[in-house]
Specification:
The protein is mainly alpha-helical and about 160 residues long. Helix content is about 65%, strand content about 5%. It has 2 domains: about 80 residues, no CATH class; about 60 residues, no CATH class.
Length: about 160
């Protein structure tokens, strides 16, 4: 039994099982069995799409859900997902893109200020990490801006 069907047989909700299935497809995008499982088992069992969105936001998985449930080239899967759900995923993805662009601009401003003060800094969280890992920053759930600086170069003043 694979990990996706195990989630359903372990008594997890269908909504959480769908979230796990989206993660599995993210890890193995060419796994046709995973796509079939989503379309034939996970999606039809969902009773509350609002709960799916709540879980996706809580676990930072809305980007993965968007990439999987709105995927091009998976017509059967797209047909299984209600149009209003795909529209809501698109809307939330656009909001996340705008938010991450603002955060990226702020991170660049902070890095410029540090550089002007002679402090070397390396971004390690947020849109920069998302760009490195996923290839596009809009898919990361970025909530803050962080940079690492050498300890000997920093002095905090109250």
């Amino acid at each position: 039994m694979d990990s996706m069907s195990t989630a359903f047989s372990a008594g997890l909700s269908a909504e959480f099982g769908l979230l796990l299935a989206c993660c599995q497809v993210e890890l193995s995008p060419r796994d046709t069995g995973a796509w079939e499982f989503l379309g034939q088992t996970a999606i039809p069992r969902v009773a509350s799409w609002e709960r799916v969105f709540e879980l996706g936001e809580h676990h930072g998985m809305l980007p993965a859900m968007h990439r999987v449930l709105c995927a091009d080239g998976q017509d059967g899967l797209r047909a299984a997902v209600p149009r209003e759900v795909r529209d809501e995923l698109e809307r939330r993805s656009a909001l996340l893109t705008r938010k991450n662009l603002r955060l990226a601009a702020e991170l660049i401003r902070i890095l410029d200020c540090l550089a002007a003060a002679g402090v070397a800094a390396i971004p390690h969280k947020g849109p920069v990490l998302a760009e490195m890992v996923y290839g596009i920053s809009r898919i990361s759930m970025c909530w803050c801006k962080r940079a690492m600086c050498p300890a000997r170069k920093t002095r905090w003043r109250a």
